[in-house]
Specification:
3 domains; 17% helix; 6-stranded mixed sheet; disordered N terminus; binds calcium ion; alpha/beta; 667 residues; binds ligand LM2
């Protein structure tokens, strides 16, 4: 017998034949990104080259108004005037950015700092001088009296939270009509140049009614989301702000972080309102934000880019799950210095993109994150989940009705499950590993096949995820012709020997039917996808083995393969052999499909039956490090003349190495 060595092996991704292309038309955009500290020129270029094509709805930009001088990122949160001059660029550059993003289908949301002005005295980046509570546009009487917000105030003193000073920043008297008029003037200036929405910074520190008064003077209908940190037990609660627009849901970032870092993903089946969060339609949600990722703004044990693969998985969950309006964080490295401003070099440097290492992170460009944005855009029509599945631990999967299906594996082992996707039959492009071409003929990532009953064999490597949706279904692959096909070939083998098959349609026969396989070998090959990737010895050979053909190793296939790999099986694992191995767990050993005994090597694939001859195709076996090629076969009832076994697509075919006898039966 063959003792199949168990070595650890990390399953890579299966790449389809596709070429990389732009994604096709974008369905309703549903996600925005915070390009934290990006310059206006960089934002504009990013809208044109990436955000628009990839379906991001909007960008939250850093505060565009004049702020105090200094290198720290947080100088942007100390306003000096409402002139549109800032580290992000000039007014002209800002106006240019808004227009170019709009033309690319991307809105701009401004982070509006309206609760306070700069602390102390100094100069703004546009040259405006100020002293304590004395600015060209404001005077002492436009501010609340000086008092500090103490920690305990957050729990029991709403007046102090809103009238005293947040980190010593002079607190504007937002109740005064003069101040309200100035603030509305600033927001209206932004609207006049095309800004589509606002993040209202430090909203908890302003009475909801003051914000309402300002907004009542604002033109048009901008999207408004108010930053209110409310983890529960606050003197000022998030719900007070619902009347003004959306509100940040900080419970989301905290609880998602806790669950991904130290909980179980299986808990997430009812994430959202059932966890004490606000109504979904009011909530702006995020995995992390510019404050809590670097220990500011109350912080918390959140997941950030520093967590690597875990970060992508948390974003995939947020974007796939129907709750709230999600914001993707796009940050820069802060692990040396949590006060540091953005890198001094641009993101876009000619054709170069400076997203790496200690600099700009560009999380929004991670394939998993942008792919999940595409998933959200294409599943927005079904605002609920179905087919929830979990393993009781950290592997989960769910559908968005018939619009999409996602699986997330936050474990160290492979996830392999046959699951109900809710999708219609066909071959889909996994949008987390690649993109579907504009004509939907190819996928630059792996593909997943859904059968006529909606089921798919879902393979997710450790710390990985897959997602398919109705907009990423490959066309022209006549998916209805795909059928699970099994071939058993019995051969006495020994440890260290492995069996492969080659096969397809005979070239001479094909020529008689007008197909020239000498010039195009694919006309005589049968597209396949292996169903069993669990055997650590054979899984590498099955990766990238896209055809049963006569050629041997495919360009995409693991080295050492002699064709399509089979696995050793038996009907009953002999107890004398120690730990029982099964095809369902180990990829080899016992399988209920084997009803005959030891040494029945098994090929288990989904096969495109379109190229078969009335359902028939040929196979010939090869034992590597052993008997080599089997001898010629004369099979009764063959559809045409050949020296090989004939098997039927969609059935269980049983042969013996070098022997003519044949058993073909249904599953
Ligand atoms: C926010 N939301 O409500 C922002 O998300 C957050 O980033 C802002 O704080 C804060 N509110 C005020 O807009 C950041 C940063 C603070 C920083 C302030 C003002 O987290 O650390 O405070 O911006 O620049 C800094 C110093 C602080 C000092 C203060 C005034 O870190 O020590 O307080 O300036 O000089 C004495
Ligand atoms: Ca205030």
């Amino acid at each position: 017998m063959t003792t199949t060595a168990l070595k650890t092996f990390k399953i890579g991704v299966l790449f389809g034949l596709g070429t990389l292309c732009q994604s096709s038309a974008i369905a309703a955009p549903t996600t925005f990104v915070h390009l934290f500290e990006w310059s206006w020129q960089d934002v504009a270029k990013e809208c044109e080259t990436y955000l628009g094509p990839r379906g991001y709805a909007a960008v939250q930009v850093s505060p565009p108004n004049e702020h105090v001088t200094g290198d720290q990122w947080w100088t942007r949160y100390q306003p000096v005037s409402y002139a549109l001059t800032s580290r992000g660029g000039s007014r002209a550059e800002f106006v240019d950015m808004v227009a170019r993003c709009k033309a690319a289908g991307v809105n701009i949301y401004v982070d509006a700092v309206i609760n306070h002005m700069a602390a102390g005295s100094g100069q703004g980046v546009a040259g405006t001088s100020f002293t304590l509570k004395q600015f060209p546009i404001y005077n002492t009487w436009d501010f609340h009296d000086t008092c500090a917000i103490n920690n305990e105030d957050y729990g029991n003193n709403p007046w102090r939270v809103q009238n005293c000073e947040l980190v010593s920043l002079p607190d504007l008297n937002t109740g005064s009509s003069y101040v309200q008029g100035k603030l509305a003037g600033y927001l209206n200036d932004l609207i006049s140049v095309g800004v589509a929405g606002f993040r209202l910074d430090a909203s908890k520190h302003m009475a909801a009614s003051d914000i309402a008064s300002v907004l009542s003077q604002v033109n048009g209908a901008p999207l408004v989301f108010q930053e209110v940190i409310d983890q529960g037990g606050e003197a000022v609660s998030a719900s007070e702000y619902f009347g003004n627009g959306l509100v940040t849901e900080f419970k989301y970032t905290t609880k998602l972080g806790e669950t991904f870092k130290s909980g179980k993903l299986a808990w997430l089946s009812n994430f959202g309102e059932a966890w004490g969060m606000m109504p979904s339609y009011k909530a702006v949600v995020f995995v992390d934000n510019h404050d809590n990722q670097r220990g500011h703004g109350g912080a918390g044990n959140v997941v950030t880019y520093q967590d690597g693969a875990l970060y992508d998985l948390a974003n995939v969950f947020m974007l796939a799950y129907p709750y709230g309006y999600p914001k993707v964080m796009s940050s820069f490295d802060y692990h040396h210095d949590t006060d540091a401003g953005g890198p001094t070099y641009p993101v876009h440097d000619g054709a170069n993109l400076n997203c790496f290492g200690d600099g700009w992170q560009c999380e929004h460009r991670h394939q998993k994150i942008s792919g999940a944005v595409d998933f959200r855009n294409n599943t927005n029509d079904v605002w609920q989940i179905s087919n929830w599945w979990d393993n009781g631990n950290n592997q989960i999967a769910f559908s968005r009705g018939a619009s999409g299906f996602v699986a997330i594996n936050r474990e160290n082992g492979t996830m392999q499950q046959t699951l109900q996707t809710g999708l219609s039959v066909g071959r889909y492009c996994d949008v987390l590993s690649g993109q579907i071409s504009a004509d939907k003929s190819s996928c630059s990532g792996q593909t997943i096949d859904v059968d006529a009953n909606g089921f798919a064999l879902v393979n997710v490597p450790a710390m990985n995820a897959v997602a398919i949706h109705k907009g990423a279904k490959l066309e022209g692959s006549s998916s209805a012709n795909w059928k699970r096909t099994v071939v058993f070939i019995k051969a006495q083998t020994q440890s260290g020997q492995d069996m492969f098959v080659r096969g397809g349609i005979d070239y001479a026969y094909a020529a008689s039917q007008g197909k020239n396989c000498n010039s195009n070998a694919l006309l005589c090959a049968l597209p396949i996808r292996h169903n069993n990737l669990l055997n650590t010895t054979t899984q590498n050979w099955k990766q990238g083995d896209n055809y049963l053909d006569w050629q041997g190793l495919e360009a995409t296939q693991g080295a050492g393969a002699e064709g399509s790999a089979l696995d050793w099986t038996t009907n009953i694992w002999p107890s004398a052999w120690g730990t029982k191995r099964t095809v369902s767990v180990d990829g080899y050993g016992e399988t209920p499909l084997n009803q005959w005994g030891d040494h029945y090597w098994m090929l288990d694939v989904d096969m495109d039956c379109a190229n078969t001859v009335n359902g028939w195709f040929e196979v010939k076996a090869f034992v590597k490090n052993g008997q080599g090629w089997e001898g010629d076969i004369q099979q009764a009832g063959a559809p045409y003349q050949s020296k090989n076994h004939f098997a039927q697509c969609g059935r269980v075919n049983v042969f013996e190495f070098g022997q003519n006898q044949t058993l073909i039966q249904d599953f």
